[in-house]
Inverse folding.
């Protein structure tokens, strides 16, 4: 960390600061230039609050050289993390496709879709039991019963299940869930992240709508600081001024995360775009950009279903997509889906 | 709610949809134009999911005419809500100023600042006990002990206290807190909002960094749907591309909220800008724009304090500010601070 | 176009409006619902200003059903536009790769790079002669002399040249340029667009940093309204809160543009990310998302070159990239580069 | 400017860079820390391209200490610039209000409004002759004839006129215009800015929709570098994800600009919000935040006018507003409007 001090900084102030920094366990390196003085900090600067330092009257600006995350940092863990989910590997050269409906609605529905997506190439099953909804009057999910039905679908198909948690209080219900998802709106629900850090189970952490990549990594760090190193990151679109798509899918987050961190990263093209017709091109693009997997909404279409999410694709479209993905994966040095 | 149907819509599909809408308790009104067919929905459309309808293959687009919030809606509650906090009124023609340090650090610190801000014109005391921090390695607040010290400061000064909650599990500790704050990062922590809806105590709900005004009102609706109608909204800056200030303070949110809702709205210029020098002009601007109050960080400055938030102003600067505010308030038909 | 009228709308006002709309050559269709009145407009609504209508006191809201662009609209021109540039086809199943340095610096430099990128698979040459720079003190390009050197490089390699124009006054200098580029900052320089509409030459129109896809298409419409139908659109990143990459590359713009318009669309991963290491993954992703081409910065690297753009890749990296692109193109039904 | 060099930097590379920097007229100061080497640059760093340096393989990061603008920089020009417009002063303690219609439509219209806004407290007249419109099919303004009518209105009322230029080619028509406006879309039309730098006439420079405050100051620098020091900056809203208002008015830009620059800054609440009802609160807020003036759309309302901008207020509302502004101005140490 580098502090640029103002020309007006007084010696006593600077000495005072240096003493305090030494007390925090840091070494310092003072360099007096003609026009400015630079104070370099050496050691574990993750304990130092950048904002506090930049608030000092005599500090012109503060620049962090080392990233503030440690466990998630590729510098300290050069190899890709590969996460094992009931025998399926995710990360490194392994690519997984998670598919399923927006919400669990009934046993028949979830079991039918589970079978269809498995046949079409999915390697894991998604489905919402607890649903974060903008409106308190909208359907909030089947909750505990939804979790039970997901486990039924797992029993029938063997697909590991991925589903969202909305409160640490619900944790006991998630004992048999294979991957616990933290939604975009809870990415900085730090009390929840701390609780998940005590588990030894994969966590799928979605990027918040207005969160930077560094903040996403810091939230992963909250989980990892508790000892749970199985964090899967997920890019699902950020909020911008463009209104045609629901959010703007930031695919450059993939190579950026790969550079900064060893954690696997997957992409959710369904929620990012909010438009079924955009799922295929964005899924292919995500694979070409180096993602480690995808999470895709696929709907059931029995004759009498009246309403389905505008972002869900049919099992048929999904089957074509997995085939195309398998043609792109070798170009970016990945194995076939699920291998 | 208006649905524009595609020219290609088949009669059977449309009839099917109309039947389903009637089942949801809605009336419909079909209008066949030369180039498009329009289906108007009449009734309580807050139960209908806009996304589900727009996902139907034969629906061109969906337009909501009525806002999806009810309890927070000025149309159904034309008069300004005035909230009574230990005798201090907020909303309508009443303007309150909440002040205090970023974090509670010690009994001496919080009691000293409490007295100073009271003398300088503050009518309520703020101070963080539970601190949401981006980094798991940063100071997380004094937590339960911090709450106890805030109550000490209240005992000494009589100032009602405002402090942030981060998990519904901590609720028992907040029994004596006068106003419970929900931070920007938890604005869509719906499980927490539901719990707060069961209280009968004022909630200060901060706008999320990437949340629209409508989403803020929907989160207020979550609290109000539980029966707790004492919600104070707070604009504290949104995330944009501009990097000079920490966030971009959206003061137009004040007249917009005043138009859409009867709830009071206050402004946090300290967190919005992140720069102490910007607090005064933005506080004056907020008052001129019609805000019902302010929440401002004021720091203590004993001889040995080494680090203070870059966004905190001194008690002296705060005293000048409250004086200037009192000169602006009459222009916008508000009483003097605290009256 | 649909106008939702307020319940308070008076008959005289509405009649007045309908008369005026008929004068503009539009048909209207009035539908009185129980709670609101809807006025449908039929005909060429591109002549009507949406803002003006929504400003009427008795109008609740205005919704455009048809897009405001005509010549660029796929509805009126279902087939992909294929543009012929000195025999090279761009659009439809044809994919082109434009490469070259940020700026033209000398005859040796531009000719050397031209040869290297040609050998490495580029089908067109880019190079800046007129450079839009944020600072008036920064190098503004070689201007007229730069154009002359580009033509030299074309003579030697046969590669068609693409270069940016910054003022209509410079048009006479661009007579022999094959594709004239309009930079992001000039996307809404409407007087310039009108001038380019009088040419019969391909225009490469870059999306502005804060412009929506619809605004990009409206700017294309400015050129096409003048009779010049050879417009190539270019996605080059939009401005968001994320600071790790220079801009956020919005690859979902590709399928969105393909749906709305018949015009070809290419991607500039170099300027979008501003980081050489991100060019390869984003280029592959763009191809997988269905782009019709790429424009990539490739630098020369003679022993004594001191400074080069952080976003430029080497000719070797570029050669690997074109090879990988050719493996992805068949998956999305495109021919090999340049075919 | 500070360069942080990578640990892997080779001595030869660094020496090579230092030699090159000396050739550019800069002094350097090398500081070898334990973990990183820091190279400080001393002198006129505005000639150095930050991007070029950060692109060097062995450079970890670059940090600019001095702002890249000189003429606009308050450090080199501590006193507020006060601009004289036909005897009216703007800047420092002087506050001006520019008002008028969106577009000039006829002699009667512009002269009537000019008289009304003058009576209601305006000190300058605005009106669009050349109109930048998103659609080529929308009304493009009366152009040269519009300028003539503005001058008629000036003759009748004595109000100085402010109107927008869209191309340097139109400059001869602007000889008698008092203040030439550069619209948001042309803020980085650098060729136009250079031409305006050759004039000796006030330029009203609007901030672009996606431009940072620093970029706005750099565009002012383009004009000032040509010798024209009469630049008035204008905040008119930036593009964000919020859709209720047309743009998000960034009032914190006022104190930020005041800190960085000596140039006067005014606010356009009409275009920023796009909603007439929001003009009053945002205008009062702008004054309270320290703006040097306002530019406001006021419409005429003769009996037969059918359509008017949704963001224009009536002359009566405008008269009330100027009265309220005069009550706020003393709080922020400004004289009454026009004094």
């Amino acid at each position: 960390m580098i502090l640029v001090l103002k020309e007006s900084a007084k010696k006593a102030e600077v000495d005072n600061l240096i003493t305090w920094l030494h007390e925090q366990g840091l070494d310092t390196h003072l360099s007096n230039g003609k026009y400015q003085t630079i104070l370099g900090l050496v050691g574990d600067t993750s304990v130092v609050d950048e904002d506090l330092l930049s608030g000092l009257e005599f500090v012109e600006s503060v620049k962090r050289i080392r990233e503030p995350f440690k466990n998630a940092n590729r510098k300290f863990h050069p190899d890709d993390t590969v996460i094992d989910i009931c025998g399926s590997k995710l990360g490194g050269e392994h690519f997984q496709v998670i598919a399923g409906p927006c919400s669990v609605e009934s046993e028949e529905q979830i079991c039918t879709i589970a079978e269809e997506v498995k046949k079409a190439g999915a390697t894991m099953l998604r489905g919402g039991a607890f649903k974060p909804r903008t409106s308190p009057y909208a359907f909030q999910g089947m909750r505990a019963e939804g979790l039970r039905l997901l486990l039924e679908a797992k029993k029938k198909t063997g697909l590991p299940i991925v589903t969202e948690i909305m409160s640490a209080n619900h944790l006991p219900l998630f004992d048999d869930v294979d991957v616990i998802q933290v939604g975009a709106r809870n990415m900085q629900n730090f009390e929840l992240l701390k609780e998940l850090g005590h588990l030894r189970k994969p966590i799928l952490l979605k990027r918040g709508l207005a969160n930077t990549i560094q903040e996403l990594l810091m939230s992963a760090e909250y989980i990892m600081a508790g000892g749970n190193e199985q964090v899967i990151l997920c890019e699902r679109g950020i909020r911008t001024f463009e209104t045609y798509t629901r959010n703007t899918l930031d695919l450059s987050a993939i190579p950026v995360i790969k550079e900064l961190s060893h954690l696997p990263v997957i992409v959710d093209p369904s929620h990012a775009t909010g438009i079924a017709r955009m799922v295929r091109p964005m899924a292919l693009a995500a694979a070409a950009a180096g993602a480690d997997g995808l999470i895709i909404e696929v709907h059931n279409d029995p004759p009498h279903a009246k309403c389905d999410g505008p972002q869900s694709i049919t099992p048929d479209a999904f089957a074509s997509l997995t085939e195309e993905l398998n043609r792109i994966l070798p170009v970016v040095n990945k194995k076939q889906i699920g291998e």
Notes: DSSP finds ten helices and 14 strands in chain D. Chain D has a mean pLDDT of 91.
